Structure formats: structure tokens, C-alpha cells
Fold this sequence. Notes:
By secondary structure, the chain is of the alpha+beta class.
Amino acid sequence: MKKxxxxxxxxxxxxxxxxxxxxxxxxHKKGVKTDVVTTGSMTxxxxxxxxxxxxxxxxxxxxxxxKFTMTMGGKKHVTDSRKNPQFVTFQAVLEAVINGRQVPxxxxxxxxxxxxxxxxxxxxxxxxxxxxxxxxVLVVDAKTSAFRLLRMNDRSGGYTEYFFK
Length: 165
């Protein structure tokens, strides 16, 4: 029975188009000498699901369609890109990268290419003091659309950076 369940699980994973990468997370706080570094994994399920999980699932960053859930330091933050304009472009960019499409143009984003890497910088416009992040930087492999780096810069001058292997 266990073998049948395992085979079914493997088949469903293949059918769901699941892709996984290892990830190293660095949390840098302004004024603190030592960065906090943890490891984990990123799971992608087309067309619009990403889960980055580190520190034995204590910290998570999840995009499920338009819903974003971030759990860090025991605190859970949930938002929806339909209600939070800061995440509209971020969601569109992530979905384009996941599905191997061209990154959509926008006034709050810049795209640069260097070698095999494409760097996408999103600087959300709007009410600055209500935003958790001042900018997002996503580096992807230009040929395979594999994630290389995600950096989220916060209002206090710190950042959270995910390096993907």
C-alpha cells in the first residue's frame, strides 16, 4: 500500500509540473554586524505558485496566485496583489518568469541583461511609508528562466536575500 501511495504522489508531482531548487536566505539588518543565514528550498508549481521555505519551515514566502503570505520570525503577513499595489508588478514578473514568458513592461520596473543573466528591478510607486519593501531585485537565467537571486530591500535599509542553487 505504501508503494502505491508513493507512486501516486510521484505521478501527481510530475503532473503538477513541480520544480524545486535549493535556497540560501540571508537576512541583513542595518546596524547589526552579523547577518542571519539559513537554508531551505523553493518549490514552483506552474502557472502561479511559489513557496520559498527556510529554517526548517519557520520562515516562508509564498505566492499562490494573487495571494502573498510571508512568515518571518513567527510573524505572518498576508496580502493580495489585487488590494496591495506594491505586489501587482511583482506578481506579474514572477508569473512571467515561472511560465517562461517575456517580463511585462511597467513604469516601476527595469530589466537589464548581462551574459546569461537577466536582472529585473521593481521599485514600487505609491505610499512609501505603508510599504514593507522599497524595492525587489530578481536575477534569473535568461535561457532557462531559473531563479538565481531574489533580494527584497526594506524601509529600514536592511534586506532579505535568497540565493538559489
